[in-house]
Design goal:
With about 400 residues, the protein is mostly helical. About 75% of the residues lie in helices and about 0% in strands. The chain folds into 2 domains: about 120 residues, no CATH class; about 180 residues, no CATH class. The protein contains 15 helices and no strands. Helix 2 crosses helix 3. It is globular.
C-alpha cells in the first residue's frame, strides 16, 4: 500500500496549483488587453442598461405598468425622441456643420494674416512653417479621418445598444452569472457590491446628464446673445464634450473661438470669456449641487484617470474615464478599505455621495422598524440594473 503523502509531495502539488493559477491570471490579463475595446463596449452598454432600467423602474413605480412594459416604453421613447430631434433639427445642424467646416480655412487664413502684422506673430508663423500645410492641414485631416470612420462608429453604436437592451431586459441572468464566480460564503457581499456599483453609476449618469444639459443651454444662449454664428451647433458640441472632464470644455471652445474670430478678434475674446464664465458657474455652483447626490470624485484622480485611460484605450477610454474611476473607487472602498482593513468610517471623499448618511437615516425613519415577530418588512423595489422584471 502506498504510504501517506509526504510534506514534500504536498508542497509540490501546492506549488503546481499556484503556478497554474498565476498562468491563468496572466492569460486572462493578456486576453483582456487584446479585447480591451470590446470590454469598453460592454461597460458602455452596461451604463446604458442602467439608464434604461432605472427609468423603467421609475415609470413602473408611479404607474400600474409592469417593469417589462415600462422598459419597452422607455426604450421606445428614447429612440423616438432621438429620431424626432434628428428629423426636426437634423437638417439645420447639418447645414451649420457645413458652415463650420467651410469657415475654418477662412478663419485660419485670417488668423495667419493677423499674426503676420506683429513681431511675435511673425516669429510664431516662422516656427510652424515647417509643417506640411500648417494647422489647417491637421484640422481638415482630422475631420476627414472622422468622416471616413463613420461606418465603424455606426457599427459600434449598434453593438452598444444591443448590449444595453439585452442587459436591461434580463439583468438577473447576468448578475447570477457573475455571482456564480464568487464562493458561496462571499456571494451576499458580492451582491451588495454590485448593488452599490449600479446605484453609484445611476447617480453619476443622472448628474452628468443634468450637467451636460445646463452647459449646452448656457453656452448656446450665450453665443446667441453675443451674435456668434451657429449657436445651436456650438452649444450642442459644448454639452456633449462636457462628458469629458477638464478636456471637454477646451475641445468645445476651439471651434467656437474660431467661428467668432471669423467675425472679429474681439468676438473671439468675448467667446473665450463666455466659455470661462460657463465653466466657472459649472464648477462653483452646479457641480456642488450635483455632488450632493452623486459620488464626489477627487479632481486630481479624474485628471489622472482621463490621462491614463486615454493612453491605454484611446478616445473610448477618455470618454469612459470618469465612470470607470467611480467603479474602481467603489471597489477599493468596499473590497480593500472596508473588508481587508476593517475601516467602515469612510467619508464622502472615497466614492460616496456627500449626503448618503443623511439619506440613509431619513429612509430608515420613513420605513420604520421591522414588524413584530421577527418578520422583515417588504423590500423596496430595486432601482439598479440588477432589478427583477415584473
Amino acid at each position: 500500500m502506498p504510504g501517506p503523502p509526504t510534506d514534500r509531495g504536498l508542497n509540490t502539488d501546492r506549488l503546481t496549483r499556484d503556478l497554474l493559477f498565476v498562468l491563468l491570471v496572466v492569460v486572462l490579463a493578456l486576453a483582456a488587453w487584446q479585447l480591451s475595446f470590446v470590454l469598453l463596449l460592454a461597460f458602455g452598454g452596461t451604463l446604458l442598461a442602467i439608464l434604461f432600467r432605472n427609468l423603467a423602474n421609475m415609470l413602473s413605480l408611479h404607474t400600474p405598468l409592469k417593469i417589462g412594459v415600462s422598459l419597452f416604453i422607455v426604450i421606445l421613447a428614447i429612440l423616438g425622441a432621438l429620431i424626432a430631434v434628428a428629423m426636426l433639427a437634423g437638417p439645420r445642424l447639418v447645414g451649420q456643420f457645413g458652415q463650420l467646416s467651410a469657415s475654418i480655412p477662412e478663419t485660419l487664413d485670417g488668423i495667419e494674416n493677423w499674426l503676420s502684422h506683429t513681431d511675435l506673430g511673425a516669429w510664431l508663423l516662422d516656427e510652424v512653417e515647417g509643417a506640411e500645410e500648417g494647422p489647417r492641414f491637421n484640422i481638415l485631416g482630422t475631420i476627414g479621418g472622422t468622416l471616413s470612420a463613420s461606418l465603424g462608429i455606426l457599427a459600434n453604436v449598434v453593438i452598444l445598444l444591443t448590449v444595453a437592451i439585452f442587459l436591461a431586459i434580463d439583468p438577473d441572468l447576468y448578475r447570477a452569472g457573475l455571482l456564480h464566480l464568487v464562493p458561496m460564503s462571499r456571494r451576499p457581499r458580492a451582491q451588495e457590491i454590485l448593488d452599490e456599483v449600479g446605484t453609484g453609476l445611476w447617480r453619476w449618469l443622472a448628474g452628468q446628464a443634468l450637467d451636460m444639459l445646463a452647459v449646452a443651454l448656457l453656452t448656446g444662449v450665450g453665443l446667441w446673445l453675443l451674435g456668434i454664428p451657429l449657436p445651436l451647433l456650438l452649444g450642442i458640441i459644448a454639452g456633449l464634450t462636457n462628458f469629458i472632464p477638464f478636456v471637454g470644455p477646451f475641445l468645445s471652445g476651439i471651434p467656437a473661438v474660431l467661428v467668432a474670430f471669423s467675425q472679429s478678434p474681439m468676438d473671439a475674446v468675448w467667446t473665450a470669456v463666455l466659455f470661462v464664465a460657463v465653466q466657472q458657474f459649472e464648477g462653483n455652483v452646479l457641480l456642488p449641487i450635483i455632488q450632493k447626490r452623486v459620488a464626489a470624485l477627487p479632481p486630481v484622480l479624474i485628471v489622472l484617470a482621463v490621462a491614463g485611460f486615454g493612453i491605454l484605450f484611446g478616445v473610448a477610454g477618455i470618454f469612459l474615464a470618469t465612470p470607470l474611476l467611480l467603479v474602481v473607487m467603489i471597489l477599493v472602498r468596499m473590497l480593500y478599505v472596508e473588508d481587508m482593513l476593517g475601516d467602515r468610517e469612510i467619508d464622502e471623499k472615497i466614492g460616496k455621495p456627500k449626503d448618503e448618511d443623511e439619506d440613509a437615516q431619513s429612509s430608515s425613519a420613513v420605513r420604520g422598524p421591522p414588524e413584530i415577530g421577527g418578520e422583515r418588512p417588504e423590500p423596496r423595489r430595486s432601482t439598479s440594473v440588477g432589478g427583477k422584471l415584473g
